[in-house]
Design goal:
Shape: elongated
Largest sheet: none
CATH superfamily of the largest domain: Di-heme elbow motif domain
Number of strands: 0
Order of helices and strands: HHHHHHHHHHHHHHHHHHH
CATH topology of the largest domain: Multiheme cytochrome fold
Helix content: 40-55%
Number of helices: 19
Length: 337
Amino acid sequence: MKKLLQQWLDPAKKEKLTKFLITASGIGLLAVILLSGVLTATNQPAFCLSCHKAMTPEYTTWAATSHSEISCTKCHINPGLLNTLIHKVKTIKEPILYFTGLWDKPIKPTETINSETCLECHSIKRNFTPSGDLIIPHDRHLNAGVLCVECHSGVAHAKIWKRGLTGEKAPVPPEKWTIKYAQEVVTTKYTNPDMDTCIACHTQRKKTLACEACHETIFTPDNHKNKDLWRAKHGPEAEQNLRSCKSCHNYGSSNKGIELNNPAIAYAWSNSFCFDCHSKMPPEHNNTTWRQKHRDAVQQKGSKNCEACHSPNDKYAKAAPAKTMCNACHWIPTRND
């Protein structure tokens, strides 16, 4: 320590040390300025687009959404300078993958966006609800471990890769994506969470599906409350008033190209809520005597009761909820219904 002090007090050595410290400080400051400039430049959405023309669909859809004033990195990099630096190091490989053509097609997120990132801008204490009827307790969902992106996955890009609008088989190549086209693609159907999202999450987590759990003015109908009685009556009710069923159970519906003469059965085959139940074997079927007794049940209830779950012939065998078809054992002429 005494030796260092003597060297510091030596005028010649003091001057050299001072010059070294000034030079080192200058280089360090320049490095900080350059690093800051690089981080700022590479954090701009236009920077990504300047190299990755394949990202034009992602860029234009972002520009057409409510998040257009938020930079890509604000959502795709966790908050904090250290996280930014780590991300930049990890993405050094991206130009190599791009120029060698080895990048994933279609482009899709590889890392989950944490809720902490969303909470940089949004508050969980939100009272706003689009319909005025929905109950959306953001804080309860967050406390239960539900990520913001589980409900809001389409908020910035309208789920374009899930919809098959990007990639090698996309209907429009990346260079043809304009802001105008993106505005046509970005609709509330894909940017806002829908009932399918809510039901799928509640079903997966085994939470209530009661109407009043999520709605303030819509309640479970009285005739639904006795499940055993309603189970026996709901088929004929659906044939009489299918529109009423659709008003609540239309989530998860998909057109499978089924052309049946009975609209209620066709709907049950194409609706995930109905299909899930109709694909499960009823208790009375699960015994050794059902094969002998089912003929009596058909005569009593009619074949339409069976066809709610079974295809009478092999034409729609794969589309029917119960894959077992009637003409696996019986000869039934081919017909639509």
